[in-house]
Amino acid sequence: MRRARPGAAPRGPAERALTSVAAGDAYAQETAGDPGPDGGGEMAEEGPRLWHITLSVSGAEAPLAEVRRGLEQLAHDHPFLLTSRYAVDHAEIRYWEEARDLHDAAAVALRLWGEHRQTSRLPPWEIVGLEVIDRQTYHQRIAEGYGPLPATPVGVHPF
């Protein structure tokens, strides 16, 4: 799966595509007997869904200008990113991910920082938090006045 604006040309041979991973046999066995939406014993075949991702990273202090530049480069290379907030020792990235299920969305999110650390020249921070919620839950939280605030303004901003 290639993430880019429609019609955009590849950014060179160094670009790596993010791919989904299988949930595994244990997950398949757990869900095999679950009734589908029609009450039958089979799961309904479901296509990709949207998941709201909040990825938190933290580490040793880095110059604020370098953190901002790295996050801006990441957003430029991957326009699916909605917003990033940052400080000298931590950052938060929020975006929508399209994936079959939560397992796939989380796996892709957990690889994002490490796989793009060099190309975007991001600080060598570690992932310290991950929240993955489905679209319905995200909108329910917003409607009830709690949860992550809508990602506006879009872009890279200091905390």
List keywords for this structure.
about 160 residues; alpha+beta; 5-stranded mixed β-sheet; 4 helices; about 30% helix; disordered N terminus
Provide structural commentary.
By secondary structure, the protein is an alpha+beta fold. The protein is 30% helix and 25% strand. The protein has helices at residues 25-32, 64-77, 102-116, 135-144, and strands spanning 49-58, 81-86, 90-99, 126-134, 155-158. Strands 4-1-3-2-5 form a five-stranded mixed sheet. A hairpin with a 3-residue loop joins strand 2 and strand 3. The protein is globular and about 40 Å long.
In short:
This protein is α+β, with helices and mostly antiparallel strands. The protein has helices at 25-32, 64-77, 102-116, 135-144, and strands spanning 49-58, 81-86, 90-99, 126-134, 155-158.
Low-confidence stretches: 1-44
Overall mean pLDDT stands at 77
Basic shape: globular
Helix-strand pattern: HEHEEHEHE
- Strand order in the largest sheet: 4-1-3-2-5
User: Helicity, in percent?
Assistant: 25-40%
> Rg, please?
18 Å
Q: Give the CA-CA distance, first to last residue.
A: 32 Å
- By DSSP, the count of extended strands is 5
Strand content: 15-25%
Total number of helices = 4
Query: Which structural class is indicated by helix and strand composition?
Result: alpha+beta
Characterize the largest beta sheet: strand count, sense, and whether it forms a barrel: 5 strands, mixed
